[in-house]
Amino acid sequence: MHTMKRVFADKIASVALGCRLTPDIRLSDEIPSEEGVVIGVEVLDDKTSYNQLELASGRMATVRKGDVIVGALGHRKALFGYSGHVPESLQPGSRVHLLNLGGVLGVCDDYDRARGAPFNCKVLGAVLTFPFLGERIGVNARVGGLEIDRGGAPLRLQGIPVIAVVGSCMDAGKTAAACAILARFRHRGLVVDAFKATGVSARRDILAMEDAGARSTLIFTDFGVVTTTSDNAPALARTMLQRLAGKGPDAILFELGDGLLGAYGVEAILDDEEIRSSLCAVVLSANDPVAAWGGATLLRDRFGIEPAVVTGPATDNAVGVEIIRERLALPAANALTAGASLGDIVLERVLAKQPLPAAASS
Hints:
It is built from eight helices and 19 strands. With 362 residues, the protein is α/β, with parallel strands linked by helices. It has two domains: 4-140, no CATH class; 162-361, P-loop containing nucleotide triphosphate hydrolases (Rossmann fold), CATH 3.40.50.300.
């Protein structure tokens, strides 16, 4: 006989946004140990670093010992940060870890020592929702809700230009680059929609894109995926491209989370011939000149893609910019100090391939 109990959550993580939960939650002691299942946990310790949680509201909150938080089961394979997996089974009292700021929960396998060990959490139960009007029949809450198109239908983007931002690794300045481009396109009178194609669930990147001027945004979490892989990333990217194209923007921009060499499916997306052929400009964000060289070489040799421009920490000063221009024969512009120039370089590449409204060239 399975039991249900009532708990008040202190913090509901952004990964569970689509469930539209209130702090007054109901928990079941029957817990499907599957990616995407929403659970309630109690935080067992305090941390002084990497101790923030992104709430469903988009705000950041400090996590403290004793907090009851709602997150979702998922895995993570991060170069910097925490790596972990979904355990084979769970029951109330099991121990899991908070693997990222978006509220992904799993068993930590390894972590970046500079960030310290992750929060330890005690599992309280699986969160229930009650979708049947007038009935107290609980259903396990799961992230997302939008449907992924797995049928492989041809992409029909109506000639809308697509811009991709890729990186040499995580924390290489991809979102800053995306936001600089979005802001510049908006200033040129263009309507741009945006999405994040790969990574681990957290909404801060698409929220930043909205702040920078993106009209509509999507992230893979909206489709019930906590962490992307090479198996699901291409279908997710195609689905988000098709959905946003249906809104009729002047352009679509998407960020590929993590790096070109990683576990989240970036290579699988770039291997998709239809997606690759839809790209009018690919922006490479790199941490240093060697990473820029490696990223450009990989794009050119592995995928037949000529980067439109290099940005990221590799362009933080004139030395890096000059090295990239001379050694890679590529334009370079810093997203933070030369965002308008970065946007103009990308816009010029797009205009060379696809006509845009007259406002863009004014």
